Amino acid sequence: MPTPEKQVEIDSLAASLGRAKLAVLTDYRGLKVSDLQAFRSTLRPMNAEFRVAKNTLTRIAAEKAGITGLDAVLDGPLAIVLAYDDIVAPAKAVTDFVRTSRILTVKTGLLDGRMIPASDIDALGNLPSREVLLATLLGLMNSPMQRTVSVLSGPARSVAYLINARAQQLEPTAAAAD
């Protein structure tokens, strides 16, 4: 039976895991506290957090949240990045921090309660931002409309070119008649 302090930590972690859209389990062994604080401050504006957690408490909290299959990765020091809103920006922050620190390693991830491999976290981190994806989607939706307008205005443009060409043909004869 866990102590009351540990039970509070389990409940908090279970609530966080249940609420998080993305959870990235990492091994932070060898990182300085100042590096961890800088990483936490990077995640804070993204509505994400970086929590150090004990493996046993994490296992119990995951079971309480309905998440299974974490036993294989719960060894050694464990820290969890929890993203509550957008999943791409925190995944990008984790990927960038892994690349720059060369110490932090990603063990696995949880996307909406399902386990995903570390390579998928890297793939999420390499996606363009939400704004870029929306702009691309808008461009794709706008392209067929522009082509339709171009095709429909083609005959009218051809008639205008035909009238203009005929007017230019008649100008020299009109000038010669004067």
Features:
rod-shaped, alpha+beta, Alpha-Beta Plaits, 6 helices, five-stranded antiparallel sheet, 178 residues
Compact summary:
The protein has helices at residues 4-19, 33-43, 55-64, 88-101, 118-125, 130-177, and strands at residues 22-27, 48-53, 78-83, 105-111, 114-116. It has 178 residues and is an alpha+beta fold.
Structure overview:
The protein has 178 residues and is α+β, with helices and mostly antiparallel strands. The chain has 6 helices and 5 strands, in the order αβαβαβαββαα. It has a domain at 4-127: 2-Layer Sandwich (Alpha-Beta Plaits), CATH 3.30.70.1730. Helices cover 60% and strands 16% of the residues. The protein has a 5-stranded antiparallel β-sheet, with helices on both faces. Helix 4 crosses helix 5. The chain starts with a helix and ends with a helix.
